[in-house]
Amino acid sequence: xxxxxxxxxxxxxxxxxxxxxxxxxxxxxxxxxxxxxxxxxxxxxxxxxxxxxxxxxxxxxxxxxxxxxxxxxxxxxxxxxxxxxxxxxxxxxxxxxxxxxxxxxxxxxxxxxxxxxxxxxxxxxxxxxxxxxxxxxxxxxxxxxxxxxxxxxxxxxxxxxxxxxxxxxxxxxxxxxxxxxxxxxxxxxxxxxxxxxxxxxxxxxxxxxxxxxxxxxxxxxxxxxxxxxxxxxxxxxxxxxxxxxxxxxxxxxxxxxxxxxxxxxxxxxxxxxxxxxxxxxxxxxxxxxxxxxxxxxxxxxxxxxxxx
Length: 308
Ligand code: ING
Prior knowledge:
By secondary structure, the chain is an alpha/beta fold. 24% of the residues lie in helices and 25% in strands. The chain has nine helices and 14 strands. It has helices spanning 20-36, 61-65, 78-87, 142-145, 174-181, 206-223, 277-281, 286-289, 297-300; strands spanning 3-10, 41-43, 90-98, 104-111, 117-122, 155-158, 161-167, 187-192, 227-232, 235-237, 240-242, 247-249, 255-258, 265-272. The strands form three sheets. It has a six-stranded mixed β-sheet with strand order 5-4-3-2-1-14, with helices on one face. A six-stranded mixed β-sheet has the order 6-7-8-9-12-13, with helices on one face. Helix 1 (20-36) runs parallel beside helix 3 (78-87) and helix 5 runs parallel beside helix 6. It is globular. The N and C termini lie far apart (53 Å). 42% of the residues are buried. The mean pLDDT is 97. It binds D-[(amino)carbonyl]phenylalanine. D-[(amino)carbonyl]phenylalanine (ING) binds at residues 127, 168-169, 172, 192-194.
């Protein structure tokens, strides 16, 4: 049995005016809770250090840059890495990354239990738009502030398991899970910031959005026989509600832990990585069952092409 006790550290709202130090303090409090709960690994949300700033239209790049980190760890986040190391807990969290070359990504990192960064992922599927959209109830400018990720969907050996990451909207695309599944992934960690309402369809309720989030992650887990941990940043950020719904999903697609609030809330589960083995060696033994000669559209075609 290869058991990893995993914590999903859902975070409540981060206001535009909140400092990174204050946010890191909340993350450390969740880490302390996780230590008391016996966690070995803790997953934090997407863009965990700041408010979900892509909701704000900014024309001035200097204003945009304020939301980005140019180093990781850095002065603001070093206390988090130090506490994780002291607790012997591996962590994963998302942040806005500005590279030394001046490129901008929606990024997440994974550490080992000694606080060393062992993996980095950059969000590939950027939802929303790049210019101010007057038709929307609120803006979602990820295509304005970030480039699509350039690292693909790698996996890493960490804590005697094969681990991968994705971020938020990525969880809605089955290709994401399958590319990691084809690398033998056993645990997929993801954070998300999902508005509670649809900026283009006010009638879409929270129940449907929570269902689609569950559906995406439980399907990805089952169809690749892997654990999936999805962790929200939730609550009202400067008048803009984000949904909660953080979950831990087992390799059979069952939700084994679920957040109940829209605040800072730790969910935990003892995840046996060997539970992945049966699915990977029977119904989802890719080598035995997949027929790639019929899948070429998936990588050769971007949009829909209806035959005559
Ligand atoms: N947020 C949302 C997400 O994919 C979204 C955007 C919401 C797209 C609902 C489609 C439907 O969860 C981020 N940050 O990707």
